[in-house]
Structures are given as C-alpha cells and as structure tokens.
Design brief:
This is DUF4153 domain-containing protein. The chain folds into three domains: 2-84, no CATH class; 98-273, no CATH class; 282-415, no CATH class. Mean pLDDT is 82; it is low at 72-95. The relative contact order is 0.10. The protein has 448 residues and is an all-alpha fold. The protein has 17 helices and no strands.
C-alpha cells in the first residue's frame, strides 16, 4: 500500500513540475498522465516495482527529455539522474498567446459591466447577495475556456450556480434577516469550489489537481493583493492630482473605476497565476516559512487573551467571529504550506513548526467550541451561532486529523502523501456545509 501511495506522490510531483515550469499545456499534461499511468501498469506487469516502473515510464516520454533533465538536476539523489539525464537540448520559449490575453481582458471587462449593472439595477441588499454571482463566474469561465471543458462539465458547473442564484433572489428574506448575509457569505465558498472544478478540468477526484487548486487559491490571493496595492497607489495619486486642479473624481471613482477595477483585477490575477506559476513557485515556500511562526505567535497570544477574558459565556460575540476568521486563515496557510512543500523531502524543522501551528489552532478551536456551546445553552440557538458552530466542528475534524498525520510523518511512521491527500479530500466538506447554509438555513429559520 505504501508503495502505491509513493507512486501517486511521484506522479503528482511530476505533474506539478511540468505545470510550474510551463513545459506543456494543461490539457496535454492530462493526456500524458493517462499515458504515463498506462505505461506504469504495463511495466509493473513485467515485474518492476512502483518506483522502477515510474522512472522507466518517464524515460519513455521522450518529448519531455528536457524537462526530465531539469527535474533530475533538482533531485539528483534519486534514480532520475541515471534514467532521465540526457544531453542539453534547446528549449523553445513561448509567451502568453495574444488570443488568451484578449479572452482575459474581455472577461475582466464583462465582470466589471456585470457589477456596474448590479449597482444600477439592484438595491444594496440585493447587490450584497449577488456580488459573488456577478464576479466569480467570469473566473470559472476563463478556466472553462482554458481547459476546453466539455458540455457535460460546463453543465455541471452552471446548474448549481443557477440554483444558488435563484435561491438567493427568490427567498423572502426579512429586512433585518440574519440568514441573508449568512447565505451570501457561504455562497462565495460554494461558487469558489465550482471554480475549482473548472480549474482542474473537471477531474476533481485527482488529489494532485485538487492540491493544484489549493495552491492556485493562495497564489491568487498574493497576486490580487499586489494588484490591489499597486492600483490603490495609482488611484490615490490620480485623485490627489485631480483634486489639486479643482476636479472632484469621487463620483466617477465609486460609480465606474472601482466596479471595473476590483472584479477585473480578480480575473487578471487568475490569469497571471496561471501564466506565471514558475515565478510564484519561488515565493510560496518563503511566505509559508515566514508566516507559519508568526501565526503560531498570534494563536498563542489569542489563547492568552481568551484565558483572561473571564467566563467563556461572557466572551464577546465579535471576538468569536474574529477568532473563526483567524482559524480559517490558519487552514488556508496549512493548505498553502503543504502545497509548497517537497513531498519527498524528509521531516525537518518546518514540519515541526507546522505541527505546533496545528496544535495551537486546535486549542483555539476547542476554546471557541466551548464558548459557543455555552452561549447557545444560555441564550438559545440562532442562525449565526449554528453556522459558526458547524464551521468550528468542521475545522476541528480537519485540524485534528491533520495533526495526527503530521505526528506520524515526523515519527517516520508514514509518508507525507497521506497528510497532503487529507487536505484535498476534505475540501468538498466545506462546500457541502456552505451549500447547507445557503439552501437549508433560510427556510429553517423562517428567513429571519
């Protein structure tokens, strides 16, 4: 069993290497992976073990010799050096096709037009409910075009999105409803997982592809933040100059610039991540090693603050919400750090720090669960409390099992692959919970 797990890890590693180095298109990588697995199966039938069959099968993919050579240089301690190292060959370098750039810009403008139309035609409450529906589908459309998705896969993406849109706009929410913002926030999670299906080309069952999507999400946040900072600086300078010459740009800024700039930046950031993966590959490990110890310090500080806050039933509601947001960020950091790690490297100091992060997050989650249960017992249940309770239970399971697998890896009892697979296989659970909050909570609480 462990051999087969190692084989899957090798194939995921090979696939990720090709994607990050832009050696070949994603559609061709899918086809090559199928061919690679067939070759491995045939070689195993001749008596080779998993590792030998994998390496020989890679060698037979002659059109990727240049990439295999680079892979061998980075991992010369393995049999790659003997099987894959070939003479240097020139490698064609290609830029982003003009057609793809045109599609990206068209989708960015379309997202801006959708948001602008929403501002014009919808009231504030309806706009807040539909904002994700006005933007996220354009990111999914880019990957649907990029991956050349078939009609069945596109239909599988469109149908749940349409259902979400209908429910969000048909449900008779009260004017001060608490289920309305809950449904709107959780619709974002459900829609983003639909983007994930488009990103992986409809092959959601692949652990490697799901991890690619987790890595993409982290890198997208980085690029979007950089674009937002740069755009904010340019906008601020422009506004300052216009005001000095007697022009007030406030109305144009709120009505036109921001509605186009923010959703457009999200689409462009998705394209940049896809086109420049080899650049972000160098950023990801650095970011995870910087923010993991900082996050540990933050969690320990928060534990101390909670311990001195008095009875758990008296903990401020806003504090509990902020703590939940922090735990979600911790899970995101965990996913991103695992996606950036070399799965074949032995356990090290950073893996120990990651376990400390998991244990600290578990302690915070346990305190939050106790506080929530205390508040529910004292003040009764509400949509917000139950939604938060459900999320914390999901986080508890996620973090606890990840900690267990991390201990096994650090003690040498298991490989890194099970820890990696656990992260990706648990992702759909969050999507299911988000769908429950959107679909079930409003009618269950009479839309209040």
């Amino acid at each position: 069993m462990e051999q087969h797990l190692a084989l899957d890890a090798d194939i995921d590693r090979w696939r990720g290497y090709l994607q990050r180095h832009q050696a070949i298109s994603s559609a061709d990588i899918d086809e090559l992976e199928d061919h690679l697995r067939e070759q491995v199966t045939d070689l195993q039938a001749t008596g080779l073990d998993d590792t030998e069959a994998f390496l020989v099968a890679i060698k037979r993919l002659g059109n990727l010799d240049a990439v295999s050579r680079e892979f061998a240089r980075e991992h010369s301690d393995r049999l790659w050096k003997q099987l894959s190292l070939v003479p240097q060959e020139s490698r064609e370098s290609g830029g982003t096709p003009a057609r793809e750039l045109t599609v990206v810009l068209a989708l960015a403008v379309a997202a801006g037009l959708a948001v602008r139309a929403g501002i014009t035609w919808l009231d504030d409450a309806a706009l807040a409910r539909n904002l994700a529906l006005l933007v996220v589908p354009f990111v999914a459309a880019y990957f649907a075009w990029k991956r050349r998705l078939g009609i069945r896969t596109v239909a599988a993406l469109v149908l749940p999105a349409v259902v979400l849109a209908v429910l969000l706009n048909v449900y008779p929410f009260d004017s001060d409803s608490s289920t309305e913002p809950l449904a709107a926030m959780h619709a974002v999670v459900a829609l983003w997982l639909l983007v994930g299906i488009a990103y992986v080309g409809g092959r959601w069952r692949s652990d490697g592809r799901r991890m690619d999507f987790a890595r993409f999400t982290g890198e997208l946040a980085i690029y979007f933040t950089l674009l937002a900072i740069g755009g904010g600086v340019l906008t601020g300078l422009t506004v300052a100059v216009l005001q000095l010459v007697g022009i007030d740009p406030e109305q144009a800024l709120g009505s036109w610039v921001l509605p186009f700039a923010v959703p457009g930046a999200l689409v462009v950031a998705a394209w940049l991540v896809e086109a420049k993966q080899n650049v972000v590959e160098n950023i990801a490990p650095v970011l995870t090693r910087v923010f993991t110890p900082l996050t540990i310090i933050m969690l320990l500080t928060l534990l101390g603050a909670l311990a001195t806050a008095g009875g758990l039933g008296e903990v401020d509601r806003e504090l509990l919400i902020l703590m939940d947001a922090i735990l979600v960020l911790v899970v995101g950091l965990l996913l991103y750090s695992i996606s950036a790690r070399d799965p074949l490297a032995p356990p090290g100091l950073f893996d120990t720090l990651q376990l400390v992060l998991l244990l600290a997050a578990l302690a915070v989650d346990a305190v939050l669960l106790t506080a929530m249960l205390t508040r529910i017992a004292e003040f009764g249940a509400s949509p917000n409390k139950l939604a938060a309770l459900g999320l914390n239970l999901l986080l508890l399971v996620h973090l606890a099992w990840a900690a267990r697998l991390s201990v096994g890896f650090l003690r040498g009892r298991s490989a890194f692959a099970p820890l990696e697979r656990w992260q990706t296989r648990y992702l759909p659970v969050y999507g299911i919970w988000a769908a429950v909050v959107v679909v079930v909570f409003p009618p269950a609480f009479a839309f209040a």
